[in-house]
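In the present case, backbone shapes were mapped to integers, as reproduced here:
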Amino acid sequence: MLLKLRRYRHIRALVRIHDLVMAAVTFPIAMYLRIGSDAFADMQLLGMMVAVFVPICAVVFPLSGINRGSWRYASLDDLIAILRAAAISIVATVLILFVVNRLGGMPRSVPVIAWLTLTALLGGPRVFYRIMRAGSAGQLIGRTPAGNGIPVLLYGYGDEADLYIRSLQHNRRAPYHVVGIVDRREKHRGRVLHGVPVIGTLKDIPRFLESMLGSKNMPVGIVITRQRMSRQYIATIVEKALQNGLTVYRLADLDVQAETGSKGPVPKPVDIEDILGRPVNALDLKDVAVLLQNRTVLITGAGGSIGSELARQIAACRPGRVVLFENSEFNLYQIETDLRDRFPHVDVRAVIGDVRDAERVREIMSEEKVETVFHAAALKHLPLVEQNPIQGIRTNVFGTRNVADAALEHACLAFVLVSTDKAVNPANVMGATKRAAETYCQALDMTSDTTRFMTVRFGNVLGSTGSVVPRFQQQIARGGPITVTDPTMTRYFMTITEAVHLILQAASQGLTQREDRGKIFVLEMGKPVRIKDLAEQMARLAGLTPGKDIEIV
């Protein structure tokens, strides 16, 4: 560490010396450019110019910050700072020389020539050094520098592509090398971004790949740079890319980059959530504030996939306290640690307990003075609940009754039951138990004058425990086969983040619309997806051809 500090100080000193040497030769060069060799006839005048100019620069340069900028990242801002510092230094010098000798012997154009000369002497080496560090001057003349990384295409011509290409060109060990850009807008065809050509639209990919056959720059993947893009269009890009044998990636969001501490945009594989999920609109904080802000919120099943995401989104809404109620010690520890790391200002209480224990539930309600309850604890694996119906009834029916009764007994503001679309005309034990829980909460909502009981119902959540997606991912990782119970079966899907977001929205609306008693909030799930189509899409995203590389049975 000490050696690095010393090296840094030495570099800073060399930069200052360089800048002052450039300042010392500025006026002699300017005079020579103006009057030729006659400039050196009066060495006393040149000496006076240098003697006045250099000390002024020694003061102005540090104050303007040009000594502090890194040459490796020299930019337009650095050039502007140099122009400003040069102008101030030359004006100050001219004023002093005017007082001393009325600018005798100095042509009136010399200060302007000196300003341009000093700018070139200070800015030129910085630009040259940046080019050398970048690895090639080809960037300035429209040629892509040779890359050692994996050749890829970019989708999207804009700021994100600009940032990503520059980050790669400044990193000699970059894992990727961009050889072309694809964009949905035809008008960008033929343009060049940092030496990388825009080859056209998606339909031009096959022609470009054909032209690159046998080349070491033959792309093997395509990186989607745009952050805001409809899921339908992402699906189109994925389909076109896979048809041409290209792996598809997306750049991680900027907030994800900040959390991971990455130094630049980082591509991640496109997953099924990118295609089936939908953009989440911002919460109406005014409505949510009534439900959560400065209130004590209890979340049952807080260690589960839905419960843990509920805890995160609720913690971001500035509650008074978040009480995590969970019967799994490991899951409880994980979500508690996560909340304390992400939201250090939030009061978090971790409680081990089971919703089937009515006394424990009432005890926590009383101790914590709970005001809002989100009941996410449930047994939801269809086959397991079918094999263990008594346990399903005890948890999903009696457990819900215990929490709801305790909320009513302690006059909580709101109770929100997280339910499922399988409660509609239930054809299995799990669906029947959830429908019974819904009916109980509806009855309480119709009769209670204190607590509002709301039920939010939605379909399959991508990536949640019990979802088909993790099972398909495991089967693909093992090389197959992917098992689909019924090829004609369809399901509605949404991401965990989207589901929890809509739960909070529905609950806040229900609290403000008290005339809608006993109603169930059904989340809009979009279009249903065939389970077989889902399995095929996931296989293709993994680079496998269904029926050839992996079987679907």
Remarks:
- The chain has three domains: 2-134, 141-270, 285-458+495-524.
- Residues 136-146, 254-264 have pLDDT under 50 and may be disordered.
- The longest strand covers residues 176-182.
- The radius of gyration is 33 Å.
